[in-house]
Amino acid sequence: MAEETLLSVDEALARVLAKAVRADSRCVPVERALGLVLGETVCAERDSPPFDRAMMDGYAVHGADAGRTVRLVGEVAAGDEGASAKPLEAGTAVRIMTGACVPAGAEAVVPLEDVTLAEESLLPVPSTVTAEQHIARRGCETRAGTAVVREGDIITPLVAGTLAGVGYEAVAVYPPPRLAILATGNELGASGAAGIRDTNTPMLAVLARSMRVPEPECFRVGDTLASLNSALGACESATHVLLTGGVSAGAYDLVPEALAAWGAKPLLHKVRQKPGKPLLVATRTSAEGHDQLIFGLPGNPLAAHLGFQRYVAPALRVYMNKSPEPRRERATLTTALSGDRTRTTFALATLRGGGGEADARWWAEPVRLRGSADLYSAAKANALLRVEPGQTLAAGSEVVADWLVGCEAEPTLE
Amino acid sequence: MAEETLLSVDEALARVLAKAVRADSRCVPVERALGLVLGETVCAERDSPPFDRAMMDGYAVHGADAGRTVRLVGEVAAGDEGASAKPLEAGTAVRIMTGACVPAGAEAVVPLEDVTLAEESLLPVPSTVTAEQHIARRGCETRAGTAVVREGDIITPLVAGTLAGVGYEAVAVYPPPRLAILATGNELGASGAAGIRDTNTPMLAVLARSMRVPEPECFRVGDTLASLNSALGACESATHVLLTGGVSAGAYDLVPEALAAWGAKPLLHKVRQKPGKPLLVATRTSAEGHDQLIFGLPGNPLAAHLGFQRYVAPALRVYMNKSPEPRRERATLTTALSGDRTRTTFALATLRGGGGEADARWWAEPVRLRGSADLYSAAKANALLRVEPGQTLAAGSEVVADWLVGCEAEPTLE
């Protein structure tokens, strides 16, 4: 098949997204929900603050007593209920702690550091006291019944605090996918000179973890239909199945046949891209009744990596009710970059600079590979650039760089 | 003490960083090391590829046979050692699979799809075959003894794959800190109208998790010296101790006294900032012999949050051998923002836009709080803005926005 007639990268992604489903929401402990998307809108079940709250350590006074000396008649600590039940009489004050209930009738809190007691129980109230100072009235932050966080919000530390504030220890979220990873190939882990190490499983497992997939199930599979069938049979619970290797034209490339036997329907096979042309994607309904997306990634680690970044990651994001798009930056290309003649090229690059710099500019430096499977040079990449067939991007031109999953900018020591 | 004479926010951070130590490196499984910093330089222990590797499915041929018809004499599969031991004779070819050893003497691989066999064992070699095509020679990617990843590199999925490629299942990293969180206050979890929920512990625990701290130890402590002392006594293993509440001037603010009794040396107390002025930081040598940094954060959740973002997070990053700086962006302010008259104000904001937009511009919208402890409105924030004392930033002005820990940009569905 001439490369020009292969499926375009945009059409391939569109086909994957058309079949990408969203998870059903389910309840998880708030402390483990960081970065997940809320599956419910949560309302305050009571006013906040739930009582008139002192916001400083000091003295609760009547506003009308500004400029007068009043008598200290007691104290209210935070969490201290009895004392607050008694209304404050004119001409008196109580010592009060941050977070405590302001007694009825009190209209201001005079901070501790703003006054000196005349005698132990005589308080000169400054004339500058203003009504309501350092008091947060019941319900001023939120009223019972008001939505405090909404379905679709991402759970951040502040959202976790808010959920705790309204009494939620667990909350409905769109949960992470259940992932199975099958590395095929007799050469993987084989002893002797022709054996090679399986780099795809650790790489894909770390990619999955970086997207909050808790424990991907991993299988190593030899180049026989029987071992492929048996491993696939253990994947009924998975929502997404990733295979590596065995999708090209070789005599030992049994993945298409095994997937057909498993009842998977092909969605696409071969994409006009470099690397990763032999990509195969299929769909299936699992024996447990849920939809499955199955990705046959090439065995070349850089091709498998691209397949994950470009097609698997968007589907996983949709599953978690997030935008399929990666984070991206506009960047200046440091050196010229040429694409393949007939295929869309996805080139690895290192992004540097950004908002921490004076001009906030990002620089994208293409990674030079020593061969199409050179994982070692690729290790310094954190972003992906796209070059159209036959296109050459000049040094200094502006490009869009997609952050690689698992490499989202974190300042490093240079 | 007049606020003008309080410690500046820059001096406070400098004092914390001066005492922030880096962890000793230790070995962890590669699959759990995402985002940590390598504590060793790792070298390839053999050439990669370890043999001359076919990069396509096809036929291994002699370059001199271009344009001739040659005889197929066998096949070599990936992982298949015996066959590759035999050198290829002129006038012959072998069927070869991607990832297999190219036989000695072969100088090119002709892809399967580029030829049609004349008869079952006769292969017309295209005249366009070029020397070395689709062969990755032994050692072309990396040579035995060459460094493939370096101390200081952050572990990404591609780095994990590289480590697997050189046989590493575990690797030395700068590990995450061991964190203890002590929430003080009789009002926390108290039943009845004066009780409030503890929002600080879940919020700080999620903040810690977002920085890869695995399981912070959490304690709830009443307002007595005895309960504080007892909880601190359980923190000897912690590298960093966070307390919330009890650091102001109130009669129940026992943290300074308890810390002194525990042998902690004050590093600073009170900072010219809003929120979070009562911050207290101390240092100590634990009974186990390691350095400890102790943060007395205010009880107000927004003040505790700021204290974590501004002082705790940089110390934790340094511990993991990362830059203390947060990720930041240049952004355009959407509405005017005024600072406190005498203190540096840290205002929460929502960052929107960025590299995914046509103009790559970020917009920072200050979050309007309904009171100084309004966690509910704060929940939509993902960034922090700094306003100097007495300063007003005009709408439309350019500001530097620090991403909040745990909120680093992730595209959301709008």
Offer a concise description of the structure.
Two copies of one chain form a homodimer. The first copy, chain A, has eight helices and 26 strands.
| Amino-to-carboxy terminus distance of chain A | 47 Å
| Secondary structure tally, helices of chain A | 8
Oligomer: homodimer
CATH superfamily of the largest domain in chain A: MoaB/Mog-like domain
Polypeptide structure, described:
Two copies of one chain form a homodimer. The two termini of chain A are 47 Å apart. In chain A, the strands form seven sheets. The first copy, chain A, has a six-stranded mixed sheet with strand order 14-13-15-19-18-16, sandwiched between helices. The first copy, chain A, has a five-stranded mixed sheet with strand order 8-5-7-6-9. Chain A is built from eight helices and 26 strands. Chain A is elongated, with a radius of gyration of 31 Å. The first copy, chain A, folds into four domains: 165 residues, Molybdenum Cofactor Biosythetic Enzyme, Chain A, CATH 3.40.980.10; 41 residues, no CATH class; 84 residues, Beta Complex (Molybdopterin biosynthesis moeA protein, domain 3), CATH 2.170.190.11; 76 residues, Beta-clip (Beta Barrel). By secondary structure, chain A is an alpha+beta fold. Chains A and B meet through α3, α4, β20 and α8 of A and α3, α4, α7, β20 and α8 of B.
